[in-house]
Write a structure and sequence with these properties.
Shape: globular
Oligomer: single chain
Number of domains: 1
Structural class: mainly beta
Order of helices and strands: EEEEHEEEEEEEEEEH
CATH superfamily: Jelly Rolls
Distance between the termini: 24 Å
Strand content: 35-45%
Helix content: under 10%
Number of helices: 2
């Protein structure tokens, strides 16, 4: 199957089957039947796309229940370090972060379930990131964790002096102080 389990429960890497020949390549970036065959039944309702320059760090973001989102993240051009942090109270991996390089070249995707904070850093000159969400954006339910929380120790793959972080993302609380209503299980 095209899904690879990570060491964090419910966080999955999706590696689509890529068909390449002299003309280029073709792959199904999403197929509901493929996901359903692996027990993953998600109804995506919103697609988002962003283009950023080298050093941009976006995150760590989430939406509180009942507006929480499962996201399927992929890169259309360039490369990113994609980060997911388990913030589900009672999870054996609570506070643990996972990082993976997603790129247009490797075509890997990360399926980030509800109950995770998510962010990424651009490690190529530019990157276009595309992600599907199973719930609509809801401003009132926005939550976040500061990207450089020492308790998380995340390596964003970008030197501190090259990091470009929105003021809003710099002002998020630490994991210990964030507003969070997620429960594992």
């Amino acid at each position: 199957m095209p899904f690879i389990k990570t060491d964090i429960p419910d966080l999955l890497i999706f590696e689509p089957v890529v068909h390449e020949d002299s003309r280029g390549y073709f792959f199904e970036s999403y197929n509901a039947n493929t996901f359903s065959a692996d027990g993953i039944d998600i109804k995506f309702v919103q697609d988002n796309q962003a283009k950023s320059s080298y050093g941009v760090i976006r995150g760590l973001h989430y939406q509180l229940d009942p507006y929480s989102q499962t996201k399927l993240i992929r890169v259309l051009s360039g490369a990113i370090i994609d980060i997911a942090v388990d913030i589900r109270k009672g999870s054996p991996a609570y506070g643990k972060s996972f990082s993976i390089e997603l790129s247009a070249e490797n075509k890997k995707q990360l399926l980030v379930p509800k109950g995770f904070a998510h962010g990424y850093a651009v490690i190529s000159e530019t990157a276009e990131v595309f992600y599907k969400c199973d719930a609509f954006y809801n401003k009132q339910s926005e939550g976040g964790i500061v990207y450089n929380d020492p308790a998380l120790g995340i390596d964003w793959g970008v030197p501190d002096d090259k990091a470009i972080v929105a003021e809003r993302d710099q002002q998020h609380p630490s994991l210990a102080d964030c507003k969070n209503n997620f429960v594992f299980g």
